[in-house]
Amino acid sequence: MDSITHGLVGIFLFHGPFPGLLLLFAVLGAILPDSDILHRRFSDRDPRLFVFSHGGFTHSIPGAAAVAGGVAAGFQAWQIVAGQGYAGTQVLALGWALAFAGALTHLALDALAFPGIPLLYPARTRKYSAGIFPGPSLVLFGTSVCVLLALLSGHAGIGTLPVYMGFIAVFIVAHAVLRAVVTSRHPGLAIPTLNPLKWLVVRESEDFFEVYSAGPSKMDRKLASFPRHDGVGPGYIGRHIGDPEVQRVVYHSYLTVAGREDKSVVIRDPLRECGLLPYPPHYRRVCIPAGDGGDF
Predict the structure, then answer these.
(1) What is the pTM of this model?
(2) What is the pLDDT of residues 212-245, one digit of tens each?
(3) What are the CA-CA distances from residue 59 to residues 12, 70, 103, 144, 215 (Å)?
(4) Beta carbons within 10 angstroms of residue 170's beta carbon
């Protein structure tokens, strides 16, 4: 989800018991995991840093702890620059705890959306998702912007936030129910799209991924069929998973296939390449020359 939504949720959850400076710790913790959008200038240069792109390390539980530590350290630095000296162990510890709690609310919301977040990194790079939303939700983003503008302009007060949170809760529950209906009627991997009544369902066989358009009804329509290994052995991707560029593509993908193109092998995410899913927009494919360990 977007940073505005995370910030407003943080204000709602922590405003009552923790006003003032302590509220600021929690809200910063809820927003700053998205600071990883600045990491691309580094991760793009070195594929070994693929987990440090957006939705990566700072969206793991250890990453949330590191973000909270950054908030506490930043506050201490500000205290020193302002001439107020050491903030005190208790203040910094409480500040870290509130920032960490705020960051965990960020992770909880982002884990509702595809393609998920690496909650257990660095222990595992696997992404976890409840699969309710298709990445960023335009509805929640638009609602959050309107609420924020109303608060900043004075047209709404802090009492608006319970209504806002009620809307978010209903929106999440409705999509969870919708997912349950779709998965009960359509076997396979159900992936939401921007249209909440249109889902992609991926069914896997030994040689193919078959993609269907489905919804709450029992009707579905086949959209595409992708060979899992076109002209290469079935274990090709596994044999090259140690390649950082292959890891980066797999990490950002919903599914991956391998196929020969001239004297090379291309490992790609066909769902994103064909435009069936627009998010994430980067790292959709990698080309492995046959002369560079490209055993077919």
Answers:
(1) 0.89
(2) 999 999 999 999 999 999 989 999 999 999 999 9
(3) 21, 14, 8, 21, 30
(4) 10
